[in-house]
Amino acid sequence: MDTQKPATRPMLKSSQKTSNENVRQQNSGLVLEALRRDGALAHTDLSASTGLSSATVSAITAELEKLGLIERREVANVGHRGRPRVLFNRRRDAAHVIAVRISSHAVQYSLADYRGTLIDRIEEPRDHGATTASAFLAGFRDAIERLIRRSRLPDDAVMTISISSKGIADRDGAKLLWSPIFGYESLDFESALSGLSHPGVSDRGNIRLFNESLLVTHALLLRLEKSRQTPLPALATLSLGHSIGLGVALRDRSGLVRVVAPNFGHMLHAADGKLCRCGAYGCVEASAGFYGILRAAFEVPPDTIPAKFVPLGEMEKIASRARQGHRVSEYAFRQAGLALGQSLSRMLSLAEETMPIAITGPGTRFMDLLMRGLTEGLGQSQHVRVHGAPEILIITEEETLVFEGHVDRALTEIDQDLGG
Fold first, then answer.
1. What is the pLDDT of residue 127?
2. How far is Cα 354 from Cα 388, in angstroms, rounded to an integer?
3. For labeling, which of 10, 153, 285, 368 is most exposed (least CB within 10 Å)?
4. pTM metric for this prediction
């Protein structure tokens, strides 16, 4: 009786082929990422940056050139004899990304190429003259069409539309479930952009929606790690303005980073009867958002319906009075800082990390008035008393970080699609 097991070699070959393919995709991603982070690099620089062997880099760059994703150019070695130096770089026209930032007062539409370079931008008033979600989406679609049309790019050139807003984004789609402007009237961007006259994006379904604070945290983490030349175990960003946003990046033991944007501004903070824009009472934002500071400075009843938008000029007037010693205005900023510090201390305790906290947004111009309360609130936490106060960074270029976060995440996804 023949008791030999059936041959399994074909299965092993298939498994080995899959494994080799995964390795090749991973290596391609490493090369494309290095070129995205550092710009044009020579063969030896790519090998050092990625940790790949010289032979592997040669094979990967040859394949990526063939796919039209990278290009090479020769640069003369000034003062040296021998052959010119060859530099590799991402091809600008290999793919394009549209990044959209929706803020309280404006919508910014940016077009970037495959190197992440901004090549066109439209900025319009946030409401497009619209007062309903459906009217806003119609104006939104029209602006996307105009940006693509005036770029004169081929139909399939734009591979991703990446959108950000304050509020709650649906993780499984491109739907804004709640926003400071439209409240609980959801905005479905994927449906709104279906059937574009330039169908490359909508047909592929590459429409992404993010909470703005997530993108800021993503981009700032990359910046800080590059400038400090060391990985950060964790980072938090706090956005101050009409809304209060938080992003948190945590690195696990394997080195992978997860970035999240919890609904921090609408986390319940105190049973003080302060009405929030979300309809609840006692949220962090009801004390620390611009409308919360405005309400306290003018001693308006805490259950007064909040303003949807507070002009920055109005906040500057309150700050000016506070700096001149007006006690009620000083108190409004101090209480806002206290609410922020106490809420951040809870976040640090839950994360079990002492991480740098970067403060961004238009509210950074009032940090001299907020810092006393912020420091006091942080100091009330046992975590801070034991582990020490976190490093506080003031970052004034939030808009740039949002754009960088959009583009980096979109291009990483495109690299996986094209390079795979």
1. 67
2. 8
3. 10
4. 0.89
CA of 342: how far to CAs of 324, 362, 376, in Å? 27, 21, 8
For residue 54, the tally of other CB atoms under 10 A from its CB is: 11
Domain count, the chain: 3
Burial of 266 (C-beta count, 10 Å sphere; 0-12/13-18/19+): buried
Encode pLDDT of 277-332 as tens digits. Answer: 999 999 999 999 999 999 999 999 999 988 878 999 999 999 999 999 999 999 99
Cα–Cα distance measured from residue 366 to residue 360, given in angstroms and rounded to the nearest whole number: 11
Co-location of 249 and 388 in the same domain = yes
Q: Which of 273, 418, 298 is nearest to 287 (CA)?
A: 273
Assess contact for 121 and 151: CB atoms under 8 A.
no
Find residue 339's DSSP bridge partners: none
Count how many residues are written for the chain: 420
Domain that holds residue 359: 214-398
Q: 293 vs 30, 112, 289, CA distance in Å?
A: 47, 37, 6
Residue 244 shares a structural domain with residue 360: yes
What order do you get walking across the sheet with 175-178 strand by strand? 168-169, 175-178, 187-188
Tell whether 29 is covered by a domain: yes
- Residue 259 — left, alpha, or beta (φ > 0 → left; ψ -120 to 50 → alpha)? beta
| Mean of pLDDT values over 87-115 | 94
**Helix (H) or strand (E) segment spanning residue 97:** strand 96-102
Which amino acid is it at 417? Answer: D
Q: What is the largest CA-CA distance in the chain?
A: 100
Token pair, residue 366, equals 């009032």
Phi, psi dihedral angles at 118 (to 5 degrees): -70, 125
Q: Taking a C-beta distance cutoff of 8 angstroms, is the pair 358, 234 a contact?
A: no
